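Researcher: I'd like a structural prediction for the single chain below. Treat it as a standalone chain; there are no partners to consider.
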Amino acid sequence: MAYRKQYLLQGFITNDLALKRSHEMALEAGIPEGNSTKYLAASTQIGINNWALVIDEENLNYLTPAERSSSFFHEIPKPEQFVKFYTPTVYRYMPKKFVDEFFNEGKLKIGSFKKFKQNEDSQKGDRSEGNAYIFGNSGTHSFVSVANYGSDAFVLSTSLLISSELQTLFDSDDCIVITDPVNFAIEVSKKIEHFRGLLVGACRYQPNKTIQRNIPNFDIDSLKVSEMDQSIDMNKLFALSSDVAGDDVFFNKLMIHSPQQEYRFIWFTWDGDVPESIDIICPEAQKYCRRLNELDLNS
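Model: Treating it as a single chain, here is the predicted structure.
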């Protein structure tokens, strides 16, 4: 349905008077007296002792010339178009000691892909983090590349779910409830040394760590060192692999981890190789979080 203009006729001191005029318009429009639809326009209060009728454009002819020329009559501005992105509440499972440190001091430990790889627990860690297989196909040519990623980034894992099973899995008896993930991440980014960029989103789960793309305009010759040197330029191949993979490499996880429903924050730096983890002090992020409560656990 296309947008329909609406108009406001105000100046009624009571709702009854506004509805009386609306009923008169309905009768003039041919709606029978006993019909369940008694009114042609909705009434609304816009101030003390000031009621108005909201009138659709197609019903303007039922207004008197005096009403249409009155200062009490005007077009309702068209609502602005909007674009919104839904961001969920997410949960960072931690022992109560560390949750207290965050809310008391703003202290927060942030890990890395390197740390994920080193954790030998099949659920808590992921040996495949930081690696992906990229397959590109143009129909006549194809390429395969192993992508190594994330060495320049810090990562904080959270979950879209609140559950006792996840608390047990992560050896936690508490968690930080992050109610505004984007602004939380922005505040943390201000504490990351040599910060370069931010990526936030939910992980996707699949049987393996492969990313396949069709590349209609792919030309194998474009990867060669030069016309004289027909060997593949590995820098060009890595650049193409990065373009083909996009951000999926940072959010693809194996199906075995799907019960975690991970929502992850990634802070990129200008450093080529970040440490396994860092501790930051960021009390500014606290206002975008809250403590866990009984309503969370019972929801």
